[in-house]
């Protein structure tokens, strides 16, 4: 049986209920509602122009500076006006914690517009070492000190600081510092999220998200910490509509009404066929339509 229409109906119903609940409290939080959509959808910088052209309600872009201690002089703005940027940088532990980067980082942070997010050494918060980071970065206590220091640097500015891990958060809690502005993780489809019939099982996707939230509540000390999905996709195109719908419906019912970001990740078009964790942009027209609809409904 084709379950896609049922999934669509359920997902849309959940989102409509959540939107209605938000409208009921609009007078009490009018400014927040005006400034912060519930989910800011976006993509990585390499495909942002094409993504934004197809998904007009998209708001957020992920920008990477992957060379150690190499940062832009000003907050990145080439993605366009009123685009919200999540910037990933890599300050080295010794330079950061000995204040050698303070002037440069403070200037970068001071130039940021509202709705700017910053993180360091993404995917370090994980049990293994998927990006091959050097040994000094693979000490949880050092990494937590670095996060706390960055949180200090952004205090009172337009920038919010957070940490992006990958894999189950409850297997890497020691890597996340407390009291950050937001907490993030990557989430890609893998076969463990499928049911016996080979279709995506929403309950399994939600179970991972529930477990991540529970762990981040412990780390942050907040019932509803601000959440970001730093990268997300499904390798095969036929899974993507359900995948993105299930992520959106979870945030609509589990996030305490707090704004969240879901940043999709796509390979460049010339990078070849589907495979790995993601795939090239553009996906099928059906996936584009679903993303467009989700972005419009959750803004």
Name some characteristics of this structure.
299 residues; alpha/beta; TIM Barrel; 8-stranded parallel beta barrel; 9 helices; 8 strands; 16% strand; globular
Unreliable stretches? 12-36
**Arithmetic mean pLDDT:** 89
How many domain units? Answer: 1
Please tally the helical runs, counting DSSP H or I stretches of 4 or more residues.
9
CATH homologous superfamily annotation:
Glycosidases
**Which strand order do you get reading across the main beta sheet?**
1-2-3-4-5-6-7-8
What is the compact description of this entry?
With 299 residues, this protein is α/β, with parallel strands linked by helices.
Topology:
Elements: H1 4-24, H2 30-35, E1 39-44, H3 48-54, E2 60-64, E3 84-89, H4 93-97, H5 102-110, E4 116-120, H6 140-154, E5 159-166, E6 182-188, H7 202-220, E7 227-233, H8 237-254, E8 260-264, H9 285-297
Parallel strand pairs: 1-2, 1-8, 2-3, 3-4, 4-5, 5-6, 6-7, 7-8
